[in-house]
Each structure stands twice: as C-alpha cells, then as structure tokens.
Amino acid sequence: MCNKPRIILGVFVAAAVVCSAWLALRRPEPTHAGKSLTDWLYQYADEHAKFVADYGIEQDFGEYESSSRSAIREMGPNALPLLLDMLRTKDSSFIALLLSRNINEVPFRTAKDFRILANYGFHALGSEARCAVPALTALLDDPEIRGTALDCLGNIGPEAKGAIPALIRLLDDTNRIDRWNATVTMGKIHMIPQLAVPALMEKLTETNDILFTTISAIGKFGEHARPAIPALMQFQHHDKDLVRLEATNAINKILRAVGATKRAE
User: Fold this and answer.
1) Residue 150: phi, psi to the nearest 5?
2) HSE (CB half, 13 Å, CA atoms) of 214?
3) CA-based diameter of the chain, in Å?
4) How far apart are CA 162 and CA 227, in angstroms?
5) pTM of structure
6) Residue of 37, 62, 188, 35 lying closest to 114 (CA atoms)
7) Measured between alpha carbons, how far is 85 from 128 in angstroms, rounded to an integer?
8) Residue 36 bridge partners (DSSP)
9) How many other C-beta atoms can be found within 10 angstroms of the C-beta atom of residue 76?
10) Is the dihedral of CA 31, 32, 35, 39 positive or negative?
11) What is the pLDDT of residues 136-155, one digit of tens each?
C-alpha cells in the first residue's frame, strides 16, 4: 500500500513527459492532397514492408516509385522540421521501464517509433533533404540517436558529403554497430574521396571486425578508390568467403569506373 502514492506520482510524471513530447511534435504539419506528412509516412512505411515481402530486402526500394514517396517529395524541405523533431524525440526513464517490463498496452508511441518514421521520411526525400545535413551531423554526438541519424545521412546520399569528417571520426568508435553504420553511410555518400578513401584504407587490416563492410564501402567510391586496388588484392585469397567476394567485387567496380572514364575522354 505504501508504494501506491509513488506509483500514482510516477504515472503523472510519465504522462507529463509524454504530453510534452506530444506537444513538441504538434508543430503545423505540411500536407499534400488533404493528408498530413505523418499519414504519408505511415503509408510509405507500409509500402516498404510490402515491397520487402514481395521482392526481398536485397532489392533497391529506392528505385520504387509510389504515391506516398511522391507526396513526401512534394512537401520537400517543408517536411524537415517535423522529421527532425521526430528524430530528436526521447522516452523518459519511466516509459523505458514500462517497455522493459513488456507492458503491451502503453497508450502512446515510443521515441524509437518516431525515429523510424523520420528515417522513412529522409529515405523518401533523398537528396531533397540536403539542408538537414548539419542538423543530422550534430545528432551524431548523441549515442541514443546516432544510429538513426547515420541512416538518414545515408538516405540523403552524395548531398550529405558535409558529414564525411564526422563519419571518419566514428570509424574509430568503440561501438561496433556505430563503426559499421558509419562505414556503410560513407559508402552511400561516396564523396570527398581524398579524405574518405585513405581513412577507409587504414581499416584494411585483419583486426578489423567489419572488414568486408569496409571493403564494400571502398568499392562504392569507384575510380576515386583506384589507389586502394593493391591493398584490396591481398584479400582476394582470404580464408573468409565474404571477404574474398567483397574484395573481388570492389576491384571490379573500381576498374569498371576507371574504364568508363577513359572511354568518355
């Protein structure tokens, strides 16, 4: 019985936190064809899930056009303030405790839900979200948000080149998942090769626990990764199949890009 007041107080505190987060996200939403950005984001997420079920995750959803993607792109930069608000949303410690206890009927969404939804928005916008790069780069300093911010930068693609110096710093992070995400994102952006390629080449070592990912990222820089070919060749006879495959694929991509440039000259 003596714990009841504490429980009631905890519920009110949690409710206040949730209401504050909800109000923060209630900035006027951009709309298209009578539907809000949030509604289009949910539709886009549903379409992505169906696409993966039909074609598999290895297929590029980026080449798939849909009414929801078109709608989100029509909103363009006007969608960014709300997407960034979603990305910055955090759960209170009390809400996190409820979720850890597997209480399913929590009458509100979690911060993770908002961040996933924001990521879909950046995926739909692609290069149209370029002006959000400084804000996303700043969010890399927050360990809780970093993973999603990296995904968002990768979804923007080459236009997110301003984030390359910050991504290079993350290549030495102690968190393996963050190192992996930063490496993948560098490959998706594949810009500023004079900085990025040497930084990735430094990680071409047997002690690198994401070696195949590093090799794959280097290959995405095309002809600009030509200096990496000698280092990549040593991994074509590696004892791990995936490392051998990625090394061969990366070298072939680089050589094809070099050949295409020569033919165009």
Assistant:
1) -65, -45
2) 26
3) 83
4) 23
5) 0.84
6) 37
7) 18
8) 31
9) 13
10) negative
11) 999 999 999 999 999 999 99
